[in-house]
Structure formats: structure tokens, C-alpha cells
Amino acid sequence: MDTKVKSLSQVAVRFSGDSGDGMQLAGNIFSTISATVGNDICTFPDYPADIRAPQGSLTGVSGFQVHIGADRVLTPGDKCDVLVAMNPAALKTQYKYCTPQTVIIIDSDSFGENDLKKAMFTTMNPFEEMNINNEVISAPISSMCKESLKDSGLDFKAAMRCKNMFALGLVCWLFDRKISLAEDMLKEKFAKKPEIAAANIKVLNDGYNYGHNTHSSVTTTYRVESTGKKEKGLYMDINGNKATSYGLIAAAEKAGLKLYLGSYPITPATDVLHELAKHKSLGVVTVQAEDEIAGCASAVGAAFAGALAVTSTSGPGVCLKSEAMNLAVITELPLVILDVQRGGPSTGLPTKTEQGDLLQALYGRSGESPMPVVAAKSPTHCFDAAFDACKIAVEHMTPVVLLTDAFIANGSAAWKLPDLDKYPAIVPPYVKPEMAGKWTPFQRNPKNGVRYWALPGTEGFMHRIGGLEKSNETGAISTEPENHNLMTKLRAEKVAKIVDYIPLQEVEEDKDADLLVVGFGGTYGHLSDAVSIMRSNGKKVAHAHFEFINPLPKNTEEILRKYKKVVVAEQNLGQFASYLRSKFDGLKLYQFNEVKGQPFNTSSLVDAFTKIMED
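The structure corresponding to this sequence follows.
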């Protein structure tokens, strides 16, 4: 049978299997290969919530979807063009992401009677039972992996850990990918275990050759070319947590400060702690504290000592840190609180994505405690958002909440390494020598209301700060009503004045639009794609996506009142919409809200926005 090669502008591949089947590694390698050859990429790792669900169970399926394109790719795709299902549970739970044209690759060795029972199938033919008529590549992956490594010296369990590479090799053949790039990645990953690297490379090649020699019963293979439109430079495949880490390091370098992270492990933020711990050579100090409040309180201490202080967590951790966060508010010290949002409330959906922490970030503390809030919109934008949050924290002597979410934190994209010379300086508002003898702890710059920063040990600037209210004039503890009223207003005014130091809000596709789509954070790609699709269908739609939440950019009200209809789309029950209404009287907003623990579906957005336009 002759196999045709078909060129595509974009394609989505979904790897799925047990959480121990290595689907995340296979997906990451495939996405990196694609980025290396010039494709744009967007990935979505979909982890099970169970730490270790029973093997072959429906709740234990781990998925990884990668969307590769010749040009601009902003989402992992609503559906996949190829589904790798390593067992019946993966087929059953992941088939909903398929189209009738999706090619399905299965490990036929894992579709035995017991495997089917674990996945709650009632017959021996899962495809007939699910009414699946797709093209299927049925390969005996497990047995071929065992045969491939029979002379390797690895035991059966170790050999079976390599079967994800057989599936990857098969997918690389299907999409005409050079496996030499994958071989290099495996050699690097298993540099300290060369026998494991060799085993994985052998199985990878066997999977590729299996597809090439048998044509795997498919009529078509695919090639996704690069358009060459990408800006020239050095690129890497980066996820949001790593980009956030790099942004924090870059900001510390620009500010001339040591970077300190006080953190407690929590999904999905832990990788930031892991990444920063690798960079002691850059002066980064990391502390894994005994609990959330200790992590935050240690960061407040580091800020007092003169470091760029960060604490990282997810929504439940922000609840626990709130008292220590307020200590940074009243002492007016620079602190970045990274909240990688996940499904809540309580333990909720720890491996799934959500935007449910916005109101907590804005208001979730005792007393009047205004705090700037910045939201990253994509995996690569996490770098810039982290940099911006640090710049605001240091230059305005305030704690800042940086919001990301599980989708962009774990998802990845092709990122052009930035030229730091093009990034603005970060200038701490240090006390000046001529202030010695006349300075008090809450003496402020009259232009922006920022108090001057005296590092401990600076001669002539001995002082105390703490959690009790202080006199505006002397810095001593004060319970005077008028002083507390004044200090409360000064802290609020300082945050409000940050609006003079952030850019105006931009609007995409602004011209002649009848509907404005508004969002914030990690929904950017899906909303932008939905707007592009609607405009290509003749609809007049614009898109405003907010990075700076508090304070809002100066032109926010002007933008929101300009359009006939405005819809706010967010992965909560309307928190950003509620916040905007509270800021601008009489503002009429439509809402699109989903809280599913999954990214938006672009086609659903298009349907919902079209309906709003037609009402």
C-alpha cells in the first residue's frame, strides 16, 4: 500500500495512558522537536488528580496534548488529529477529544479482557461498543518493547517504562520528524544513566521503523512545515513555571538584588521552587519552609533585609499566607506573591486549572489592604508578567500578587530568549545620604507616595517596622485615630498611583467592532483565537486582555464604554466582571463563565459570543 504525504498548516496530537506510562515525557519531547524545526507550539499537560490511581483505571489517565502549527498557535486545540491511547481507559476517557478523522494509535497488548474490565467496558470490542469508526493503528507496543530490550539487561518493569518511546517513534514517523533530535534529548535527560538512555533510544528507533516498514495500515502521513515568519533568534520550548522563574531571576539582576524564595510545596506551583533551587550560581536563595505562613513570613524578613523577596503557592496557600501578606502591606516592603491558580475550593481539583482566586487576590485579607495584582496570559508571557510584578513591588515598596494558572504554568510554547538590555531598569527607592538624621521610616516620595527604603545596617538609618500601626511622622507605634485614617489612605493612594507607571490597555481588532471580548490571565489564547475566527466569518469583534488588574490601566473605562456590547469571559463565576462593575457605575456587561478545570473550548466561545451579538 502506498502512503501519501499530506502537508498541513497545523495539527494536534494527544498522548494518553496511565500516569506511569510516560505520556508527559513523550509529549514534551515531541513538542520540543516541533519547536526546534520552526513550528509554533502550544501544549496542555492534563494530569490526573489522584497521586497514584489503580493501574488501568479511568481516574488514572494522564494526557498531554500538543498543537503544532506552521504559524501562530495560541491554544492546544479543541480536538486532536492523532490520539495515542496506551490502554482502554485512555481510549474511553480521551476519545471525546477526537474528530471522525482522528487517527488512533493503541497498544494492542494492553487491550486484554482484564484491561477492558478495569476501564468499565462490557464487551471485548471497545471500538464497536463506543461506536468508533476512526482509522486505528493497532501495534503490539508492549511485546515489541520487551523483544527490543531482551538483551539490554533491564528487568521487565524497567523495559516496560520505555514503551512510551515506541509510541513516540511511531508518531515521529507519522509526522516526518527527525528522531535524532529526540535521541539528543534522551541522552541529556538520562546522562547519569546511559543504559536507560540507550534502551529508550533503541525503542524509539524501533517504533519509528515499525511505522516505516509496515506503513502502520494508514493511508496518509503528515508534514507540518514552518512558514519562516518567526522573528529570528534563539528559541526554547518553555512552560509557564520555568518562564516565571526566569522572569524573577532577570528582575533581581536588573534591580541589583539577591532573589529570595520562601515557599512550601503545593501543586501546581512547586516547579517554581524546584527551578529556582537550581540557580544558586546566580545568587538565588531558596527555602522550603515547614508551612505556607512560614514561607511567606520568611520572605517578608528577606525583603526587610534588602532582597527581592518572593513566595510561591496556589489558592489554598494564599489563604494561609494572608496574615503574613498583610505584614508586607503595613510594613510597605517589596514582596511578590505568586499564585498558580488551580480548581477550588479547598483541595478541589489540584491538577486542574481555574481563575477562582481573583477576588481573594484583590480583597482576601483583613482590614484595608490594597495590593497590586498582575496576571500572566500565556506560558511565555509569564516571564514578562513576573518581571513587571517585581518592578512594581520594588519601585513602589508594596507586595504584589502575580496570578498564573495551572494551564499556562504546565503548558509550554516556543519562547524567543529575550534581550535583557531592552528591558527597563528596576530602581529601588533607597534612602539618600543627605536624609541621615532627618529620615523617618514612612517618609515618602511626594510624587508617587512611596516610602524610602533603608536597608538594615545602613549608617544613620536605624529604624523599626512591624505589624502594628505606626506614626506617619515618627515611625513609632501609634493608636491615634487620625493617624490610622491617614496611613490607611496613604497606603491606598500609593497603590492607586501605580496607574501612572503601567501602560494603557490595548485592544486587538479594535476597528469598527460591535462586540468587545474581555478577559484576563491564561484564557488569552482561546479568546484571541475565538475573536479571529469570528472576524474571519464577518463578525465585528474586538478583544481586550488585561495583565494589570489592580490598578486597572487609565483607559479601561473609556474602552469598556466604547462598544455596543461587552462580554467578560473567565474561568470562574464572574469575579472579573463583578470587579469591573464595582469600579465603573452603570456598566453593562455580558458574561461567559465556566468552571470545569479545563481550558476553554474555542468553538464553544465562538457559539456563545455569536449568540450575544445576535440577541
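The longest strand covers residues 98-107.
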